[in-house]
Amino acid sequence: MRALSYQGPYKVRVQDKPDPRIEHPQDVVLKVTKTAICGSDLHLLHGLIPDTRVGCTFGHEFAGVVEELGPGVTNLKRGDRVVVPFNISCGACFYCKKGLTACCENSNPSSDIACGTFGYSHTTGGYDGGQAEYVRVPFANVGPMKIPEDMDEEDVLFLSDIFPTGYMGAEMGGIQPGDTVVVFGAGPVGLFAMKSAWLMGAGRVIAVDLQDYRLDFARKFAHVETLNFKDVDIVTAIKETTEGRGADVSIEAVGCEAEGSMLQRVLGLGLMAEAGATTALNWCMHATRKGGVISVVGVYGPPWNLVDIGTAMNKNQTLRLGQCNVKRYMPHLLDHIRKGRVDAKGLITHRFSLEDAPKAYDLFSKKQDGCIKCVLSPHA
Ligand code: NAD
Ligand code: ZN
Ligand code: ZN
């Protein structure tokens, strides 16, 4: 089959690889019909996720058709269309039973930190991902959700990750009716966090980014106020608009490649020179009021991160963070999509064949051509 694979920092290519097979009774092999590229894939592309091996197939956001089943799969049949959570979970361990599927003990037993994830390095189990014609899905009785007959793959594709992640980002913020919520990062995850903040009763939602086109998109898609941190001193601007106090809740949807720190500005350093940057997270601490909540969904790949934790401590802030427990949010968010409250597929700005995936990576990572979200069709 054809698959998009890692070739070292900043290099991916589409290559021939052996078709995946059933390796365990609870596996299915899925024929991938739609798969998306995520901001998390950019951290892999940029070499920031430990133990990303050459030849690894990327892709943790995908939907497709069940092609082959192991004898232990009872919830699915050949031909079923499904969307699959990015984290692999067993459904039966201590954490899965609590709904913390992102903490599953059995999908990556060699690690006490990271659960199994599709296409996300050997740190998360070394599973090949779904930016390919076919993918093996372990614990297939647990993760995959059947796609309703009247919906297509693109309608529900983002239930695999970014809609649940944005939603959990807002939920961890503990938003109270009327709260002012600031979302750092107007990428796909931030955009879903903004929509979710409204659903939870926020009184004001303010998006922060440095890309004007993304802030324009956020105004249209999520009806938020916007601030470009290239134009203003961001902490001052947020305080000025919140009676000097700061936001009630900040959501960090940027991660370890945040731009805009003083160090970068003063020294003119590039992105890689400051990988591990916590710019947005530190801005959250300074721009959130005392007693407020900071919710972090941005991914921090490198083990070094300069966090101004003393500020958060002195301001009595609550810090919550996490990889999304995707599975628990799927049914509820499917309902929001069905009822037309969230136009999830409205985020797709670019569609490509699998062969053109390297072009899609280039466009998405350079934030060119109005790119918000790229979707690949491996069998088109
Ligand atoms: P993206 O790269 O499309 O978006 C990030 C946005 O942040 C960009 O628009 C960029 O211009 C902006 N940005 C850069 N520096 C900034 C700063 N200092 N302040 C404000 N904005 C800044 O990525 P995405 O797909 O939206 O993902 C966002 C983050 O969420 C990534 O770190 C990704 O790995 C992470 N993520 C986490 C989970 C989870 O389970 N917790 C799931 C999916 C994605
Ligand atoms: Zn993702
Ligand atoms: Zn488990």
Fill in the keyword field for this structure.
12 helices; alpha/beta; Rossmann fold; single chain; 6-stranded parallel β-sheet; 380 residues; binds nicotinamide-adenine-dinucleotide; binds zinc ion; 23% strand; Quinone Oxidoreductase, Chain A, domain 1
Shape: globular
CATH architecture of the largest domain: Alpha-Beta Complex
Helix content class = 25-40%
Calculate the terminal CA-CA distance, rounded to whole Å. 14 Å
Give me the count of strands: 17
Report the radius of gyration as a whole number of Å: 20 Å
Unreliable stretches (pLDDT < 50, length at least 5) are: none
Bound ligand species: nicotinamide-adenine-dinucleotide, zinc ion
Number of domains: 2
Structural class assignment: alpha/beta
Please report the first level of CATH classification, the CATH class of the largest domain.
Alpha Beta
Largest sheet descriptor? 7 strands, mixed
Enter the CATH topology name of the largest domain.
Answer: Quinone Oxidoreductase, Chain A, domain 1
Q: Count the DSSP helices.
A: 12
- Name given to the CATH homologous superfamily of the largest domain: Medium-chain alcohol dehydrogenases, catalytic domain
- Please tell me the overall pLDDT: 95
User: What is the H-and-E element order?
Assistant: EEEHEEEHEEEHHEHEHEHEHHEHEHEHE
Strand content: 15-25%
Describe the model.
InterPro entries: ADH-like_C, ADH-like_N, ADH_Zn_CS, GroES-like_sf, NAD(P)-bd_dom_sf. Residues 188-256 form the Alcohol dehydrogenase-like C-terminal domain. GO terms for molecular function: oxidoreductase activity; zinc ion binding. Belongs to the zinc-containing alcohol dehydrogenase family. Its cofactor is Zn(2+). This protein is of the alpha/beta class and 380 residues long. Helix 4 (162-172) crosses helix 5 (188-199), helix 4 (162-172) crosses helix 11 (326-338) and helix 7 (234-240) packs parallel to helix 9 (279-287). The chain has two domains: 2-161 and 325-377, Alpha-Beta Complex (Quinone Oxidoreductase, Chain A, domain 1); 163-321, NAD(P)-binding Rossmann-like Domain (Rossmann fold, 3-Layer(aba) Sandwich), CATH 3.40.50. The protein has helices spanning 39-45, 94-97, 153-156, 162-172, 188-199, 212-222, 234-240, 262-267, 279-287, 309-314, 326-338, 357-366; strands at residues 2-6, 12-16, 28-36, 61-69, 81-84, 87-88, 116-117, 134-137, 145-146, 180-184, 204-209, 225-228, 247-252, 288-296, 318-321, 348-353, 373-377. 26% of the residues lie in helices and 23% in strands. The model has no long low-confidence stretch (mean pLDDT 95). The chain is built from twelve helices and 17 strands. The two termini are 14 Å apart. Strands 3, 4, 5, 8, 9, 16 and 17 form a seven-stranded mixed sheet that branches. It has a six-stranded parallel sheet with strand order 12-11-10-13-14-15, sandwiched between helices. It binds nicotinamide-adenine-dinucleotide and zinc ion (2 copies).
